[in-house]
Amino acid sequence: MNMTIEQAGLMLADPLAYADEPRLHEGLTLLRREAPVHLVEAPEYTPFYAVTRHADIMRVERDNALWLSAPRPVLGKKAFEEHARQQAAQGVQLKTLVHMDDPDHRVVRAIGADWFRPKAMRAMESRIQELARRYVDRMADYGGECDFATQVAVHYPLYVILSLLGLPESDFPRMLKLTQELFGGADAETRRGDTAEDQFAVLLDFFAYFQQLTAARRAHPTEDLASAIANAQVDGKPLNDVETASYYVIIASAGHDTTSSTVAGGLHALIEHPDQLARLREDPGLLPLAVDEMIRWVTPVKEFMRTASADTTLNGVDIRAGESVLLSYPSANRDEEVFADPFTFDAGRDPNRHLAFGFGVHYCLGAALARMELKALFAELLPRLESVELAGRPEWTATTFVGGIKHLPIRYKLRR
Question: Rounded to two decimals, what is the model's pTM?
């Protein structure tokens, strides 16, 4: 059945569409070709324009004075947005780097920036390699069959990011559950409930945990990122409880869930493209390029929203002040104008101008860490992997924001 432009646009507001990647990409290809800036009027959502071409998304990302994150940084139903406004009026609102614009964004981003610079990454490298070895050893212990997504991919990056924060290992399961509930609010397997109130209850649980952490790190500072956040000051004043909790939430959740999706999706890509797996094993020097190709291929962050601060035109479409656009990163990363054979997984793709980390002032703070984690895990896994195949059907998360493969049953032979 042929898809109409309207049907393709509506897919961007349908979490289940992201669990059916061939169908999703069919719709995105149609939009890029026929309606690259397309008005979507989906039930239960405030209308928005879907932006699907790489060049147009770059244009928006470059002009952060015209295109603002506030008040609608990610796609949400009207009921969710209204509940958020009510919570904000009571002083309970998630306000992360994703939600902010300059000058606040620049100042608050600087608090954690040093922890993700090359010098800090080099200091973490041996620890990350140790963790990668631990999780590949764990695969060996599973006896040749496992759900790679749930037994390896979700745990390894969570361990890295929570170690960076300095959280006790006993709290990791709680953080994993909260993260999955936060990003999996549209997925029947992971969500806490169906309502906006249920989703905000997850945030409140995050806030309660991190308020206790802030108090502890202010009373007894330690050498970790949690202490840096707890004791940071802006204009001579410490961050308030909501600001510190918001900072922790974005580091703990975005720093984990996006990477776990790419770990699982990266292995799936190699299973589906055995020629590229063989190529990588023969030439391990290609791994840095392969990691970026995994990131392009998976694109774990599906969208961010921007709102026009003034009347403007984007690719010939007039957009009024106050109207919003959805930046479709999976579409940008398959744009035929930018990528040769965009639907081919190429472990040696170079150049690779993917937008999976965004662009401009909101470029992902943890991009270098994500690349290091992926490189370390596959550098450990590939030399030991004698064979690997699917042992069942992969399943993708139903989401409109962050996600990827949630179940990847595999069968394999691994050298110890």
Answer: 0.93
